[in-house]
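Problem 3 from the worked examples.
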Amino acid sequence: MNSSSNSVSPEAGRLSAAGSSPDGQNPAAQSPTVSRSSGSRSTGWRRPGWRFSGRLPAGQVPAGRLPVRRGWAARRPATQVSAGRWPAGQTATGRRPTGQSLAGQSPAGQSPAGQSPAGRWSAGRLPAGRAAGPAARRDARGTSGRGSAGRGAPNKGAPNKGVPGKGTSNKVASNRGSSNQSASDRGPRGDGLHWLRLAVWAALALLVLLPLGVILVRGAQPANADVLTDPYVLAAAWNSVSSAAGSAALATAFGALLAVVLDRTDLPGRTVLRWILLLPFLIPPFIGAMSWMALLSPAGTVNQTLMALTGSARPLLDIYGGGGVVFLLAVHSYPLAYLVISAALRRVPGSLEEAARISGAGGLRTFCQVTLPLVRPAVVAAFVLTLVANLSDFGIPALIGLPERYTTLTTLVYRYLASGTVTNPLPAVAAIGVVLLVLGLAAVLLQRRLPGGSELGGSGAAALPLQLGSARWVVAALLWCTAAVVCVLPLLALTEQALLPAPGVPLTWENLTLANIARALTSGGALTGIANSVLLALGAALACGVLGLAVGALLTRSKHRSNTALDVTAMLPQALPGLVLAVAWLLIAPALGIFNTPWVILGAYVMAFLALVVQSVRAPLESVPVSLDEAARISGAGPLRALGDVALRLSVPAAVSGAVVVALTAVRELTISILLVAPGSQTLGVVIFNLQQAGDYNSASALALLVTIVGVAGLSATAALGARRTARTRFRKGK
């Protein structure tokens, strides 16, 4: 190539955005930027008849570029739409009437987002006639497009709102330093996202902040000090803490063992065994307590069999008392510990274990010195979660502990409200609620101070399973026996009691009957409870689905200084005992005019189960590419519409799954309902509990069996669909 090629000045490569050109004039003619030596070929972009060296002749558009005479960036007539759109009268793919904007088909001079006249603030754009500085233009590219301003052309078209009339022009603002602010700050205070955030905060203030604030104020009164020093309250507090801590320790140890054996070994039949061992997680604790009562009570199947075999006149096993409470709490909470620890084990990079193996460490040593230290935060988190869950349980201490006068804080509050032993129970209940609130917050703060496990990248090769060798069949037999005793036998005992006419009747084909199920389904109290539970569950699912999706969208798709507080406010009720939530709504219900109505139960349900939907939609919302939002914004959509048409629409299936989990959980809930129930508003869980307390064990078992079947089937189907959706998403991403 000839060395005497075209020499281009530094200004040649700049597009005509920095300056303005009158109509019909070629900017290149005003400031020559290209010098050409004779006999050399131009290195610029060529077309017959003219040459391109960074600027275009007037009226010609190469490959989708704008005409130079129209102006491209900051200085452009006020009647044209900025944010990267085409001049009035032209589109990217065709022609449209002059005077209409690209996105909203609004008259020239009006912004399509908000239909506001030119010269007004709209969706983060600058008013007509004001120039955006370089920093402002850079900020605007990521949000609402490039700022439009500049020296306007005469308004010769149709009359526009807010645009000077014919023969007038807009002057360029000289103060560019004042425009160096972010695009979100330049946007209006009343845009869509702003109002959405205000609506979400208003809902959370009513559903979360107000109840917790009232219980803190009412329970922390100096006059309630006598309640907290009462011997019965102290004994109940000790029983609550000891049973919750002991059961959490057992559940965490067994859950960690299951996570290692089922997920990191070559155990045969792991899939079916995992589903069976997770059954207690799908069954309400109070129904599980009823199952174990049918199995190990003095008149239960096991005791009757052992008494016949040994000739003993007294039962050999007894499920009632403090030991039974700890055992059953551990049985119904170990699946939670398993899920938390198993998720952490799957995130351990296989490359670390491979490095240890290459260095000469065996499988067991690698697991103990590499894997276990990485999942230690998950083990502690599982202990804290099970501790909080067991601390707030009501069904197991009420059915298993109260017959032996083993009282916890939850059963003590129920006795205060139901028996009338206290003249004014609300201050005492509020004081006990504050104690549980403090214990729950302490557990949450302890968990948040733990390492977050960010070193678990989840990338690299999958970890090699531990080889059990000849012991794999022995371990499999032990686990199958454990699953049969812990998960299957109690359900069989519940089924037996539901199909027999009365307790103690021998199990024979002649004695089996469906009369209990028919009587339970046709009684007035059962029908009312079923109707109330279904309506409340559907209402809670709908409210939690909408509000949870909005909270998740604001947390993952926007950057705001209130996001941390919003996250803590939405997730805090999940970490608090259900008794605290029930007491809080019991205190504010008279002021809101919903005392002794189903509305107070609905409010408590939404407060308790909102976090389930937020957790369900968080990951799908984070996986939506930001480029889709940017494409919607460039096409003319406002912030709220871009959020709704892109991210929210793609996350609706996850929100529906979370709402289904909320409905299936709320329809069998007992702890909140038993404290807020009123005449005519009893739920299905309360009906079953009342039948059990009244001695109608067979009818209670029949209803409990139906609830168990529906709950297990529904939650299993929801989990399977969620797993399929996750696997499909990972397959599309190539993971």
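Problem 4, a separate protein:
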Amino acid sequence: MARPFTHLHVHTQYSLLDGAARLRDLFAVCQELGMSHIAMTDHGNLHGAYDFFQQATSSGVTPVIGIEAYVAPESRRAKRKVLWGQPHQKRDDVSGSGGYTHKTIWAADNTGLHHLFRLSSGAYAQGWLQKWPRMDKEVIAEHAERLIASTGRRWPSPGRPDPGPAAGSHTFRTPVTQATCNSCATLACMTRRLAEVAKKVGVSEATVSRVLNGKPGVSEATRQAVLSALDVLGYERPTQLRGDRARLVGLVLPELQNPIFPAFAEVIGGALAQLGLTPVLCTQTKGGVSEADYVALLLQQQVSGVVFAGGLYAQADAPHDHYRQLAERNIPVVLVNAAIEHLGFPAVSCDDAVAMEQAWRHLASLGHERIGLVLGPGDHMPSARKLAAARAIADRLPDEFVARAIFSIEGGHAAASRLIDRGVTGIICASDPLALGAIRAARRKGLGVPSRVSVVGYDDSAFMNCTEPPLTTVRQPIEAMGRAAVEVLNAQIGGVAVPAEELLFEPELVVRGSTAQAPRE
């Protein structure tokens, strides 16, 4: 009898990423119960899969990573995009009465995992960024090598008996690595397809696989012979071999708690998808996957380029060897916002000096003379630029009016408390979360905002107009910056020589309710 097996299925946008941080206790319980494996699936994304894998293996439990998909009954390539829940969508969505197949898809080995990442990234881009409701069979077929699938049950309509499993489906009765797919000929026959094409051409299956995946090391004559064999045998060529290159681009973010980073991800991811580039979201977690780990993973996946929207490139004292690896391999890279010198990559930045000037002059116009700054760590390049600009503008900026903090509400609270104790009446912060912490610090001391202390943030991230009071802040032009970053990256991917220069974008002061006239003594 097979040992017990746990399968968790999750639905939130960052499910694997969130879940991986909470699974240690579950792993311990699985060990107590003698469960040897944990399977995790999600609908169309694998965010945090590497972290999940690391935590599972370190606990002595074998991880099995997969996705679940509702496969539409017909091709969607020629269909226009639809929004969730529209009436004309119902006929082929899971919520409608039309036929569909609910598949659980797993990787059989490292090759399968490679294709699973490609499939999940493409499905995520289509389903989330482009508002496609579900996958279709063509999308799955393009990345089906070494994948295993099973079908689920068709749920009964109200008042009707349970129809039972869909034709050709089954449940897992054995460990997942022994499961087979009886209902999807494309997935089940991938190995047979390789063998047939290899026999037709007179080459090895490995050579056919290299051609299908666009890898080097195959002569042009052999490549053309393999493609011709595909046509003769009636198999569809992969998308990248039909002229529509299915290219991956890493999108590396330092966190998701600060709303500015999901905002950048949405703009950049959407712009990439419009160019036929598939974004692979890589988000760091505390004590989890590092930026260098993500770069190594992206290099293994042979990405076409990488966009960093915040990261270690902005910290002078942080390790930067992984950036040099990207440069040595000539991988197109674009950095968003200020970076240390000599990395050799083009950058798209908001002008920190102009942002500081706008915030400072605003507080000065309200009569504030004792203005303090809450900035990031001393090696943080955007903070260094803001400080330099403040010293150039101010008649006098004492060192005690500059407080350093980690980028969080708690960090802003601690730093602003020190500034308030030193007598400042206006505080300029290097991010919106820092500004929210500064407001909390003033209130904890019994001081009103803005009656006794005025606070200015930076970013104008989501919901800053809904705080109490609404936050005065300096807005980054996220839409323009994100699209410019993608344009610069796409030019590099296309072979255009792009100089390692920085494009500066003008910020905008947004005056709301957290600033007012300086208090009278």
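Solution to problem 4. The radius of gyration is 27 Å. The longest helix spans residues 110-129.
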